[in-house]
Amino acid sequence: MLHTSRCPEFEKKEGVQKATETLVSNHVDGLVVIGGNGSFNGALELSNHTDAIIVGVPASIDNDVYGTDETIGFDTAVNTAVAEIDKIRDTAVSHERVFIIEVMGRERGFLALEVGLTSGAEIILLPEVKYRKEDIFKIIRGNKAKGKKSGLIVAAEGIGDTRALGEQVQRNTRTEVRLSIIGYAQRGGSPTARSRLLASLFANLAVELLAKEEGNRVVGLQRGRVESIELKKSCGTEKTLDPNLLRLAKILAT
Amino acid sequence: MLHTSRCPEFEKKEGVQKATETLVSNHVDGLVVIGGNGSFNGALELSNHTDAIIVGVPASIDNDVYGTDETIGFDTAVNTAVAEIDKIRDTAVSHERVFIIEVMGRERGFLALEVGLTSGAEIILLPEVKYRKEDIFKIIRGNKAKGKKSGLIVAAEGIGDTRALGEQVQRNTRTEVRLSIIGYAQRGGSPTARSRLLASLFANLAVELLAKEEGNRVVGLQRGRVESIELKKSCGTEKTLDPNLLRLAKILAT
Amino acid sequence: MLHTSRCPEFEKKEGVQKATETLVSNHVDGLVVIGGNGSFNGALELSNHTDAIIVGVPASIDNDVYGTDETIGFDTAVNTAVAEIDKIRDTAVSHERVFIIEVMGRERGFLALEVGLTSGAEIILLPEVKYRKEDIFKIIRGNKAKGKKSGLIVAAEGIGDTRALGEQVQRNTRTEVRLSIIGYAQRGGSPTARSRLLASLFANLAVELLAKEEGNRVVGLQRGRVESIELKKSCGTEKTLDPNLLRLAKILAT
Amino acid sequence: MLHTSRCPEFEKKEGVQKATETLVSNHVDGLVVIGGNGSFNGALELSNHTDAIIVGVPASIDNDVYGTDETIGFDTAVNTAVAEIDKIRDTAVSHERVFIIEVMGRERGFLALEVGLTSGAEIILLPEVKYRKEDIFKIIRGNKAKGKKSGLIVAAEGIGDTRALGEQVQRNTRTEVRLSIIGYAQRGGSPTARSRLLASLFANLAVELLAKEEGNRVVGLQRGRVESIELKKSCGTEKTLDPNLLRLAKILAT
Predict the structure, then answer these.
(1) Is this complex scored with an ipTM above 0.90?
(2) Closest residue, chain A, to B115 (C-alpha)
(3) Residues of chain A with pLDDT under 50
(4) Whether residue B132 is found in the same domain as residue B55
(5) Distance from C-alpha of D167 to C-alpha of D177, rounded to nearest angstrom
(6) Is residue D249 part of a domain?
(7) C222 interaction partners in chain D (CB closer than 8 Å)
(8) Is the pTM of this model over 0.90?
(9) In whole angstroms, what is the distance from residue B127 CA to residue C10 CA?
């Protein structure tokens, strides 16, 4: 078994070599790699050194795997963050404060976008979308002028220093601003029904592919159906944010 | 505003007449009907008596609206039921018992199917699929012979008398059987992120349709995209269970 | 290890004899019995046949052990029921219905009393307190006259046939009444902080008693402190409902 | 109504003066102050300038009010933190990391102590108890030598810079250390059954005191019973951590 939690190793050359030796010495014919983009790049490298049938099953809170609309664990992470923001909103409203909520996502904003949309954030900040601080100040000041004294900004961790941003917003809008970082809890907890369903559907197709000896593929949800694509294609293509969700979020842009 | 919670009235002639008068006397130009199949049948009837632009937004824990893969509230109800079954399983395992869990769904098994799949039920009973009691007994007896002393049967309320079924299973398998009815809690609670996202996406399209004066339509999620279909088509077509999920569930059939 | 989940056996003569033999043949010097009143009666019987040091640790959702203000698991069960009632209330209010919520408790009303008080029930029905149906009708009718169209009745399962009661209330008050049985979920789930704290505190004292060879005792929480009493006294004394909570609940009485 | 959420004002002279004027100009005879230590100090000051009957009801996640074993909201905050740590532990174990979890509590460690005890923390750091960093390193190294590669340190925010501490632990124990700050979510959310019960019991006694015109008192839970003490005594006495819990926690000390 390859611990996907040890991805960093798996992504390095020595990791791949070690994995290759383990597969060969144990006469492993088939391998299911469960993980995100990093694990699949390791799997692709591994496929060059072994004849084992390799199938990728996308599981990641980042939802950053090309070839699937959604990864196992993503819905769970979104709900964990939203449930916590529901609790923070109680303080935001009663104390009339603006909260910056930092969620996970160093390079990709899938999680922040969906958390922002479903938690009722006024502003959503994503690594993929440039924003001007002056626009944030303007929105907060505008809401204040209209009598709305509390507010939520959901930001992916990859957008930069959220603590410094909070201080700037506070200075420029004369509003009390607080920062809350929703951390590793997003990676754990009991999975939601949807994450469990995806796991069952993906596992089912992965086993079918192994049985049919169709390797070097990644299973996934494509427009509501469970399908598979080539591992090489999944690794080599960047998944982009859903333009409909982006539009819905009226995200700050230059 | 039409209380969808008063559907029973709305589905009757007098209800439709009252609604028509309300619309006319208040000079209402557009109407968004939020509800399930029953509400939409009322809306269709209403559309014959008014020029108001009517748009349907599917919201129902039954997921029984043709034209959308998923209704607002469905994901919430599934998660509520699954969370409760997670707690019941603790007793099932520690006391070595078989539990029949009855979930909502008088005529349709969408909820029971997804709850059963994601809660790890050994047997799923749906109104749409005939089953033979002897098959249930056989499965329970077989599991017992293999050393598995506990078990979960998820049943939609529409499959018949679950209490009587439990007694028959107990008698025929010599296993302690308990019944748990997951009731009205499935209709309430804080919505999941997914139910909130659908609500935002559906509302957005509904407003666009109103603005473009395209009435008598029902918005929905079709293979991952938000689209709309004719109200008449939605009301007149029966939505069927996903054959992939059915196969995955290896449901009991004659 | 004695499975407390097999209490029914343990409470019988053969169970005690089997337990005695197990202790002797395994040269067991000390025994911690974790359970409720039934398990402790078995432990008391066992103490007449063995020299092992026996210490009882009260764990039961019924909270029916004399010698402790609270049992491990009680707070968890209360919170599970209250969380579910919070969800049911959504339907009660939106559909203007009266709900009877049946919680566990065949002979004792500790759970129903605390659930009723903390879920905002209008009426609480307990096995220990006689009530007249006419009084229930009067309260519901009175609330209706004042414009309050929904309502919650929390009832312990031991008060009789809640389904029949619901039908009588419906007939006599011309209000839609629904029954919801909060079942075995109350016995499971992740423990609350308070249940975990009691478990640590009780376990700590139990081990101290074993080390000091002070057996035939039951540990417990007495007015905020962790103490122990004689096993015989715990088994022989009936624990009564807290009169302050009873008063607070303004429970229906003849 | 005095917004306890505006305590900072209430604790200042101008705040008290404003409150006095409001009471006088509105002919207020009785006042219930709901809050923590800060609010009660304001109430005490207020009592010198008005004849209104003042009763304090302890509500604070800090549990820092002398005269009550527990404040309204404390149990809710503990459970929120513990539920989040349960999710973080998944990552701690799977990734073999040590987590420092910072919970609220600038000056007092009631919350951190109970969260630490019930979340299974190896180390608990409180503002009231001095600790030596070398002792922390020793424990982590010792656990690592025994094969335990993950770990939890629960720290009150008042113990100093947890980020710097984490870096020191990482350097000195050659273990990956992560920091998670459980922030404002601890102040919100749906109250637990216990917090609701305390609220009912305290409110009940507060109203009785008002009716009997017994002012300048603080209600509270004392060894399991609802009683009241003098407001002056509550404000003037420091509440200390429960020595039994401290011993149970085997807290690091010099």
Answers:
(1) yes
(2) A193
(3) 1-7, 254
(4) no
(5) 7
(6) no
(7) 224
(8) yes
(9) 42
